[in-house]
């Protein structure tokens, strides 16, 4: 306590009154259970060259110049990477990929596979493949199309989530006549 005041030190057993308003509760509730996204670093294309780093200006862009993962048309290819599951992870799990193509029609067939690697678990854990998704490109060239895949594996906070994004370019459903850019990849989850 400050000298010359009637204030005293709080000790174990003291009772303290606090006023909790509806706004306080609303603010606390709003901070809990938020859906969050963290980027997945995709840094490894397959060895066939069918997943390759592309320069956006070579794929129809005139204003934005970025090097992004890409998939060659009409062939199968993959990109792999990883993300650390955040410490505020509570539940859920989805991989959201953002696709961009210099086309106004066609279908891109993708497949997300993941493996959870916790401390003490082999880094060479087998992937769990989710159901393939057929995505029709937007009717305007170069529009971003986000595609979400809910994971059947259960991530654990602090673990590594290995991620593989595959293009099933030889599948009959895949009709996109140009290469497809993988503009982004995110892990989505609900926080505590």
Task: Looking at this protein, list some descriptive labels.
six-stranded antiparallel β-sheet, 12 strands, mainly beta, 192 residues, 1 helix
Describe this structure in words.
By secondary structure, the chain is mostly beta strands. 5% of the residues lie in helices and 45% in strands. It has one helix and twelve strands. It has one helix at residues 22-31, and strands at residues 35-39, 41-45, 51-55, 67-71, 76-84, 89-101, 107-117, 128-129, 133-136, 145-150, 160-168, 180-191. The strands form two sheets. Strands 1, 3, 4, 6, 10 and 12 form a six-stranded antiparallel sheet that branches. Strands 2, 5, 7, 8, 9 and 11 form a six-stranded antiparallel sheet that branches. The protein is elongated, with a radius of gyration of 23 Å. It starts with 21 loop residues before the first helix and ends with a strand. The model has no long low-confidence stretch (mean pLDDT 90).
